[in-house]
Structures
1.
Amino acid sequence: MTKQILDQLYHMGFRILILLTGHYPGAQIKQVRKAAQKISKKYNDCYALGIPEQALVADLEYLGDHAAKWETSLMLAINEGYVRLEDAPDGLSFSERAARYGIMGRDPKSEASSQKGEKILDAIVSRLAEAISRVKRTQSIEPFEEIYARYKKELKKLRSLDLSFLFKMQGIEGFEELKSFVKWWILNGKRYKPNYPNKE
């Protein structure tokens, strides 16, 4: 379906195509990149990029999360009317936030802000716009290839860090917390057990 959409866009006259996914399981990231690369090879005047948004800002410690510090910060910057942090739970561990509410990452209630979201959003937009301008000017896919290469380099750098630091970046405090999360992830099949407060 993604390949068909890209092909249709090309036939409508678009020559620079961006697949920017906000959902980033490894298979989906590979899929959008592969679709972008295929259409770029299929037509010599087509330049496509397929990435998750954090590929543009991994150097700013935004690695993606799920309804946690970063996604909540981005939504606060885009439209704070969609966010009710006052309804977010207080004092839950990483695994409790994940199992009850699907929040995976640092606690949004204490760490999210529109300022953080604006910083990340501005960087995503400006870096993407700069790459698109260079592609248009040079008629080359190279600026998009540089984005892939930078993201790969940032991920490699992160993988070389101490695991406890990476866990802490995502809000996992200690081995017991990690064990509890892995148990939920594997044994409960990532099923959520929502425990939302009653609203009148």
2.
Amino acid sequence: MAFGHAGCAVDAVSPRGHAITTTKLLRRWFRYNGFLDSIRSAIQKAKPDLIIPCDDYATRSLHRLREQSVATNPALARLIEHSLGASQHHAVLRTRASLLAAARELGISVPDTEILTSKQALSAWLSAHPLPAYIKADGTSGGVGVRLVETRDQAERAFDALSSPPGVLRTIKRTLVDKDLRLLSPWLHRWRPVVSVQKVISGSEANCAAACWQGRLLACIGVEVVQQEENYGPATVVRLIDNPAMLAAAEKIANRFQLSGLFGLDFMIEAATGTAYLLEMNARSTQTCHLELGPGRNLIRPLAAALSGSSADTSARNVTDRDTVALFPAEWKRDPGSPYLTSAYHDVPWEEPGLVRDCIKRRLGDRGWMSLKKWRARKAAAENAADSPSARPERN
């Protein structure tokens, strides 16, 4: 929608029934069937000037597609590189620990992080670093691949869980209920995600969404997380902030990796020092990229201008004078009675009634699956609390 308002013609490739098909600003839709060829076919038919991945799997798919096309379809390979940035850096951007190591070299504050190739590597890290720590799996989002561990046993169990291929029940549910075939190949091929361990930084979560072109930062929206869906889950309410360290990190990373398009950075602002520690990068559009929030905080219009070679719109429209934003439909789904729905700017696309209806409707499997998901989260939290040394009674 934001690209459409900026004067772009927008096509999309997505699974059947995706909410993107309900917006009036979509010109053409192409079906994603779970295989890379459907993305290749959509690009060949749409003939776009720019490709924007909207989730981590889409980013990885484009990286794979570029690698496959270098010899057979160099024009497609160049288009993907033109859209995302220099291809020699794609592998670094896909791996959390590699990205953070590069960020440290740029002078960006990052927590101690290490790729875990085995349980022996985990044991060595635990021997050299105090707990608690985070065990994280690459290629996951929304907090699904994150575990807070406070004991060695918890760490080993988390490593086993996160380093395993997708489970059969999760794959069946995703395929049959969600009509999403993305887990089929990892399940069939028994692919194991890259897992890393990261030191815990105590503080408040923050993130920034950025637009860039050929290594130059065009605009950046920095926010502090006020409310989130679940522990380590996506933000549902954010507060706009100006953090020079976050902005500097976005500029350095865009320049170092010669990025184009949209990306996001996740931070933890340490309570004791106010230092912004970079936790990870999302090499794709993120959930605040579309917001128009005035000069320097309007991502899509300057990106569209850079693409077309025209001057950016200097009016820099600001949709709200409030500093807090409730994201739709996330906060409404989290708590329909949330006070933020009225006290904050509630980001509802009222001009797209079809999209609004799609976002709030109940879908097959939502109730049972979400109940199971929440039960598992509560069960894991209870187990962690029971295993925590602080939960054990002291002996006199």
